[in-house]
Each structure stands twice: as C-alpha cells, then as structure tokens.
Amino acid sequence: xxxxxxxxxxxxxxxxxxxxxxxxxxxxxxxxxxxxxxxxxxxxxxxxxxxxxxxxxxxxxxxxxxxxxxxxxxxxxxxxxxxxxxxxxxxxxxxxxxxxxxxxxxxxxxxxxxxxxxxxxxxxxxxxxxxxxxxxxxxxxxxxxxxxxxxxxxxxxxxxxxxxxxxxxxxxxxxxxxxxxxxxxxxxxxxxxxxxxxxxxxxxxxxxxxxxxxxxxxxxxxxxxxxxxxxxxxxxxxxxxxxxxxxxxxxxxxxxxxxxxxxxxxxxxxxxxxxxxxxxxxxxxxxxxxxxxxxxxxxxxxxxxxxxxxxxxxxxxxxxxxxxxxxxxxxxxxxxxxxxxxxxxxxxxxxxxxxxxxxxxxxxxxxxxxxxxxxxxxxxxxxxxxxxxxxxxxxxxxxxxxxxxxxxxxxxxxxxxxxxxxxxxxxxxxxxxxxxxxxxxxxxxxxxxxxxxxxxxxxxxxx
Length: 463
Hints:
- This protein has about 475 residues and is α/β, with parallel strands linked by helices.
- It has a domain at about 65-220 and about 285-370: Rossmann fold, CATH 3.40.50.620.
- The protein contains 16 helices and nine strands.
- The chain has helices spanning about 20-25, 35-45, 90-105, 120-130, 145-160, 175-185, 195-205, 240-245, 265-275, 285-310, 320-330, 340-350, 350-355, 370-390, 405-420, 440-450; strands at about 1-5, 55-60, 65, 75, 110-115, 135-140, 165, 210, 315.
- The strands form three sheets. Strands 7-6-5-8-9 form a five-stranded parallel sheet, with helices on both faces.
- Helix 5 (about 145-160) links the parallel strand 6 (about 135-140) and strand 7 (about 165).
- The protein is globular and about 60 Å long.
C-alpha cells in the first residue's frame, strides 16, 4: 500500500491516491520529473519514492496482509526488508503447508476466487490452497491460446475446481480509456489493467469476497538471477548487467524526452543509484531477491491492488514476508529449475505436477522421467532466451493494436510533443512504437492534459 504527499510542505496531508492529491492540491507551477517519466515509458511503473511530479513523493506504508508470529493474519504497519533474520525452516515444504493452513483459517468460509494460468506459480497457489482445505473457484483470462487454455482446464479438472474462462473486451472507447485512467491512478500503464479490472468486476458481480493471485512466486525460483549463470554465489552484484538484461533489454525512451539532461546512460545510472544500490546484499543472488521483493513486486502489487480495490480485496500470498523470506533463505539448488515448485507439487498433487506448463512445455514434476525430458527443454528454452537477452538481440516487437488504440496512441504522441514533454525525436505515430509502450504513452498524455503539464525547460517543441 502507498501514500502520496508533497515534499516541500511539512503539513501536507497524505493521500492514498495520486490522482486525488493532484485533484485537491496540485502544486501550481510544478513540473514533471523527467527521469521518472523516462523510467515509466521504459518500465511501465514509477518505482521507489518517485512519481511523475517532482514535488510529489510516494511512500510505502504497509502490506495488506501479513502472517504474524501468532500464526494469524493482520495488517502490517510497515513494509519489511529481506535481511535473513528469520532462519530458514528445517522443512520448507512443511513450513509452506503451515502458512497456507493459517491462511485457510483466516479466509474461513468466504467466497474465494483465484487467478489460474498455464504457469508454475498459479498452479502452486491452487494446490497449496487445495491441500489446506480452502474452497475456491478459478478464473482464466483467455489469451486466445488453445495450448494454455487446455493446460488450465486440465489443472482445474484434476483439482475439481470450478473454472470460469473470461475473454476480456478490448479497449474501444474514450469512456473506457477514462475509466482505466482513473483505476490506474495515473501510476501504471492503463492498458495493462484492462483484463484485470474486467475480471475483478465480474468477481464482484458474482459475489466473491476475496481474490488471490500467484504474483510474487519468482522469489521461490531462479527467475530474477538466471543471467548470472553459473556464478550465483559470488559476492559482487552485477547491477548494470541486471539492468541491461532484465530491465532495459530492448527499449529506452530517453532520447524521446525533451530534456538534454536525460540520456540512456543517465536513466540507467539513476535507476541503479535510486532503486538498486540501496538494497545491496552480501551476494548477487540475495541482492536480486531484495530488488525483486523490495523494489519491483512491491510497486507492481501496490498498483494492481489499487486498481482492484474498487471491486474486491486482492492478496498475493507469495509476496507475504514469511514466504518471501522462505525463498530468500532457500539453498540455490532448491530454487534452480523450479525445484521448490516441483518438490511441493509432486509430493502433494503428483497428477497436477505432471501436466505441462506454458514454460517451454515443461512439467512441474520431480519424477525422474519428467525431469529428464524437462531438462532438455529447459536448456533450449532458458538458454536461448538468456543468450538473446545478454547479446541484446531481444526485440520488443511492433504493435498490432486496434484502429482505435492506434489512433489514440498517435494522438497522445502529438499531445506530448505539443506540450514539449516529448522531443521531435519521438515517433510520430503508433506504428513506430513498441506494443508494450502504447498504454504508457496514452497514460502520460492523459495526465499532462488533465493537469495542463508542459515542458518548462529551455527547448520546448514548436506547436
């Protein structure tokens, strides 16, 4: 959870919404934070204390729910840091079961819905809930993938879970754009929450009380530090390499920004200085875990929770401190090759574990036959992806958007140029913009229009 307040006013009231602060006490004459804007266009979020406005800062206040030492759930008052002060449990799988049993006691008989995809994390969540005796239904957001839909149906059938397949409606009107901008709070790519908000609205209409997601499960895997294979135990943390392979593998908007101080180098060095260096740990793996948990997932989940709160509460158990700390303390070999997921699923629900995932068609099983077949797939799938990222050959791809969204993106580019926020080096139309950036451009243009934001430096663009 987050609050927003003005930096230069000691008596500034905190707001739980960025747009509410802007509507009620926008600092007149203030300017955009162009470093933050450059980060947003490249990454889709404003991380750390940054917001689009220089004098408005963001502060993380608490996680929504946390399992306490009394094995009960409550609101935590302050975000926790991964320090390893809690020792690793002797039996990680038993600890994992105990956590979900406590979660089951907390949830009681509430009507629960979970997200289910073809990946490892949502499957782990579903099986852990089933093992704890939680009654729940599942929702799959149909992405027009027959393979993933088949996988999800197989998992749901095996667990005897009611599954709702929802095909989200595309964004096709100005009114929907306005609604998404409001739900995004101006702090996240508005197109990225289109499917989410439709699913949450459906859940509310159906009478669900609580939704659970598998977000945060990467801290139980090796996802965020694969690029350093095989030197996982070294003391030095290669932050620039992490930025190049995980954060800016193919796109930087620095040259689009109408400020001579903003360059690709300054943006990346600023990212390292402001967000990554403060969470350095004794080894590179622990550093990357801290970055994932304390920087990346904290902001992403805060933004998604904000977008969902208009419909129903949402919780991501794997992002709870006790489970994140479990992953932080696991041995590296227990995380490689999704070994923790495989161990749990194979011991508790072997039939579900043997169903392929969308991750290279690998299973989630630890059975010898499955592991042997998956090892070959792992080498080709992960090895190829890492080589492309490290060599810089990964491509963002071009957008295949609807005519409405293409026109909206082109209009937004023009708006940002006229206001001097983007330079003449920025693309002129949507076809020249990576697909992942369309919603960010629209979000930024709506913010600039709503609060009459213009470039206040020395080189505005001509109207």
